[in-house]
């Protein structure tokens, strides 16, 4: 390519004669976008490179590192996405694990961003059976969910279908438990826009 140079050059667009990407370089170059001849992504480097986006020679995706690297965007030699993980973690969007599709590292059983253990159900974590952008327990289906026993406005049991869910017996968009009497709460027997407990009889119910 016209932007390639000899193996001794270290310009951002250098390439060895065997490299084919405009941002690749030889193993002796340390530009953030360097690659060895066996790497094919723009931000990979050899295992001896120390830039934040370097990769081990066996990695082929950008923003990876060797197992001894500790930068925020590094992982072990078997991981190929940003955010470090243990050696048993396998990264999403990989050529090695083609079934993973999320951008940040997790354990082999997790597939959503921000890693957690398989039993975690926090908003940004999920087990392998979770599919929402903000993960919950495997029985939850809302975008902002919690464990099946949670009843906060942004949590939902598996039987709730509103964007702001509650306990399984509530069915309104802004709900609470059946014993709550605040204006934005409702028992399963209330059907008006502003709700309270089933025993309230105000004009707006």
Features:
205 residues, little secondary structure, elongated, disordered N terminus, disordered C terminus
Question: Strands, helices and their partners?
Answer:
Elements (H helix, E strand, L loop, with lengths): L205
Structural commentary:
With 205 residues, this protein is mostly loops. The chain contains no helices and no strands.
Summarize the structure.
The chain is low in regular secondary structure and 205 residues long.
General shape? elongated
Estimate what percentage of residues fall within beta strands.
under 5%
Number of strands: 0
User: For the terminal residues, how far apart are their CA atoms?
Assistant: 73 Å
**How much helix, percentage-wise, in residues?**
under 10%
Largest sheet: none
The overall average pLDDT, rounded, is 36
Radius of gyration, whole Å:
25 Å
- Which class best fits the helix and strand makeup? little secondary structure
Task: Report the uncertain regions.
Answer: 1-205
Number of helices, counting only DSSP H or I runs of 4 residues or more: 0
Query: What's the multimeric state?
Result: single chain
């Amino acid at each position: 390519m016209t932007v390639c140079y000899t193996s001794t050059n270290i310009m951002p667009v250098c390439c060895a004669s065997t490299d084919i990407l405009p941002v690749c370089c030889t193993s002796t170059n340390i530009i953030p976008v360097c690659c060895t001849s066996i790497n094919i992504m723009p931000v990979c480097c050899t295992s001896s490179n120390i830039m934040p986006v370097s990769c081990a020679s066996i990695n082929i995706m950008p923003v990876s590192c060797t197992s001894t690297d500790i930068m925020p965007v590094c992982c072990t030699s078997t991981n190929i996405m940003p955010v470090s993980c243990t050696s048993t973690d396998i990264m999403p969007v990989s050529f090695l694990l083609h079934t993973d599709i999320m951008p940040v590292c997790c354990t082999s059983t997790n597939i959503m961003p921000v890693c957690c253990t398989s039993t975690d159900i926090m908003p940004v974590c999920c087990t392998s059976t979770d599919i929402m952008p903000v993960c919950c327990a495997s029985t939850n289906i809302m975008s902002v969910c919690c464990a099946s026993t949670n009843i906060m406005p942004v949590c939902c049991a598996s039987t709730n279908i509103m964007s702001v869910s509650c306990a399984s017996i509530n069915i309104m968009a802004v709900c609470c438990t059946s014993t709550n009497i605040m204006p934005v709460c409702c028992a399963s027997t209330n059907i008006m826009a502003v709700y309270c407990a089933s025993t309230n009889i105000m004009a707006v119910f």
